[in-house]
Design goal:
48% helix; 10 strands; alpha/beta; 16 helices; 417 residues
C-alpha cells in the first residue's frame, strides 16, 4: 500500500450536529461526481447534476490515472496517443470529450447560478447525493478550494442532503447494505437496465427520484408537481446539512487522517503482505483514529498499564469483533514491547491456479509394485511416451515432421521427372 493511501476517507464517518436549515424556497438539484479514487488527494473525472428542467454533465481529464477500482467502477480509463492523454469509455470504446478540472468547475458553478436565477426568489441551491460513506461533499469542497472557488460556491449552495442515511432511518437498517440501484428498485419498484450505476449522471437521476419518494412519506395519494416540490423542500430543510457543518466535518476528517498516519509504523508487517491483510490494517487504523488514539497516546498507555490497559482501551471500539480486538491487542503489544518481534500475520500463499501450494506427491514403491515389480522392469516394459521399444522418437510432432518432409520430397521428384 502506498503512502498516498493514508489520506483515504472512504471508511471514516463523522457526525457534527448543527442548526437546521431555515425554511423557504430553495432550488433542489441532485449532484454526484466520479473520481480517480477515494482519497482527498484524488481528482474529479466526471461531475453531473440533475433536475427535471435541466441537466448538467461534464467529463474532466485528470492529471493522475484512475486506480484499478475506479476504472472498474466507472468503466472509463486514461489512454495515451503519442503525446496526448484522453479519456476512453470502456462500454462504447469511444473517446470522451473532456475539459480541464478548473474549466469544468467554472461551468458547474455557472450552471448552479443559472438554476438559482431561473427559480425566481430562491434562497439558494440544495444538493442531493446518495452515499453510504460521505465523500462527495468533502471531495467537491477540496477541489473548489484548490482553485479559490469556494466563496463563489457558498454564495449559491446552502446545504447538502444525503438520501442514504434518510432511507436507512425510514426503512430499516437493511437499506444500509443496498446500493443506490437496489434501493430504488426496492422502494420505487423501478429498474432500468440501461442505467449504469457507475455513471454520475445516472446516479443523479436515481437520487432525485429517491428523494421525491422519501419526501412523500407514507402518503399513497397522487400529487401534482407543485405539491410534490413543496414536500421535497420541507424534506430537504429537515434533513439538510449546512455548508458550515460540512466544513467542520472536513476539518475533523483531516485530523482523523493525521492520526491514521501516525499509526502506520504499527502495521508495516500487514502492509507488506496480501491485500486481505492490508485492508484489515486500514480498518484497524481507522477504528483507532476515530476513537481518538494515536501512536504517542497508545505508547503512553502501554507503558503505564501494559497489555491490560490496551484491553480496556479497545473495549470502547464497538466496530470491531472480539476476535479482531484480540488480534489488535497482539499487534500493539508486540510493537511496543522491545523484547518481542513485530507481529506478523499468517499468510497462506496460493499458486497461479488459485489452489494452495503443496509439495508434489512422491510415488510410493507399493504403487509401482502393483504394476509389475520394480521400477526398472516398468521402464523396460512401458517405454517413455513418444518412444518405441528400440528407443526411436515417435512423438506426434516428429511423425508429422517426417511425413511432411516425405511428401515434399515426393512432389519435387515428380516435378523433376
Amino acid at each position: 500500500m502506498t503512502e498516498a493511501a493514508d489520506t483515504s476517507v472512504q471508511n471514516v464517518e463523522v457526525v457534527v450536529k448543527g442548526d437546521p436549515i431555515p425554511a423557504g424556497k430553495y432550488t433542489i438539484l441532485a449532484c454526484d461526481i466520479d473520481t480517480t479514487g477515494k482519497r482527498l488527494i484524488d481528482e474529479i473525472v466526471h461531475i453531473a447534476t440533475y433536475c427535471p428542467k435541466e441537466q448538467f454533465s461534464q467529463y474532466v481529464i485528470p492529471l493522475m490515472n484512475l486506480n484499478p477500482a475506479a476504472r472498474q467502477r466507472h468503466q472509463i480509463r486514461i489512454v495515451t496517443s503519442r503525446f496526448f492523454r484522453m479519456l476512453k469509455d470502456l462500454h462504447t470504446y469511444k473517446i470522451i470529450k473532456t475539459k480541464s478540472e478548473v474549466a469544468a468547475l467554472n461551468d458547474f458553478l455557472a450552471h448552479l447560478e443559472k438554476s438559482k436565477q431561473e427559480d425566481g426568489d430562491s434562497k439558494g441551491v440544495i444538493l442531493l447525493f446518495h452515499e453510504s460513506r460521505k465523500f462527495f461533499p468533502y471531495m467537491l469542497i477540496q477541489a473548489l478550494k484548490k482553485y479559490n472557488l469556494l466563496d463563489r460556491f457558498f454564495e449559491t449552495v446552502k446545504s447538502f442532503v444525503n438520501t442514504h442515511s434518510i432511507a436507512v432511518e425510514k426503512h430499516g437498517s437493511s437499506m444500509k447494505y443496498f446500493s443506490l440501484k437496489e434501493v430504488t428498485k426496492a422502494l420505487l419498484n423501478v429498474e432500468d437496465k440501461d442505467e449504469f450505476e457507475g455513471n454520475a449522471a445516472h446516479r443523479c437521476k436515481m437520487t432525485y427520484a429517491l428523494a421525491k419518494h422519501l419526501a412523500r412519506g407514507d402518503s399513497t395519494e397522487e400529487m401534482d408537481d407543485e405539491t410534490s416540490m413543496k414536500k421535497l423542500m420541507e424534506f430537504c430543510c429537515e434533513y439538510g446539512c449546512t455548508t458550515d457543518q460540512e466544513m467542520k466535518e472536513l476539518d475533523e476528517q483531516e485530523k482523523i487522517v493525521l492520526r491514521q498516519n501516525t499509526l502506520r509504523p504499527i502495521f508495516l508487517e500487514y502492509f507488506r503482505t496480501t491485500l486481505y491483510h492490508r485492508v484489515r490494517a486500514v480498518t484497524y487504523r481507522r477504528v483507532l483514529a476515530e476513537n481518538g488514539h494515536e501512536l504517542t497516546s497508545l505508547h503512553k498507555l502501554w507503558e503505564e498499564e501494559k497489555r491490560e490497559g490496551l484491553n480496556k482501551c479497545l473495549e470502547a471500539c464497538t466496530d470491531l469483533k472480539e476476535r479482531d480486538r484480540e488480534e489488535l491487542v497482539e499487534i500493539l503489544d508486540h510493537h511496543f514491547d522491545p523484547e518481542k518481534d513485530a507481529y506478523r500475520p499468517i499468510v497462506r500463499r496460493r499458486s497461479s491456479t488459485g489452489n494452495p501450494r503443496s509439495s508434489p506427491r512422491r510415488r510410493s514403491k507399493s504403487v509401482s509394485s502393483k504394476n509389475g515389480g520394480s521400477n526398472n522392469n516398468n521402464n523396460n516394459n512401458n517405454p517413455a511416451k513418444g518412444m518405441d521399444k528400440n528407443g526411436n522418437n515417435t512423438s506426434p510432432s516428429k511423425k508429422k515432421f517426417f511425413r511432411n518432409n516425405r511428401n515434399r520430397n515426393n512432389r519435387v521428384n515428380r516435378m523433376t521427372a
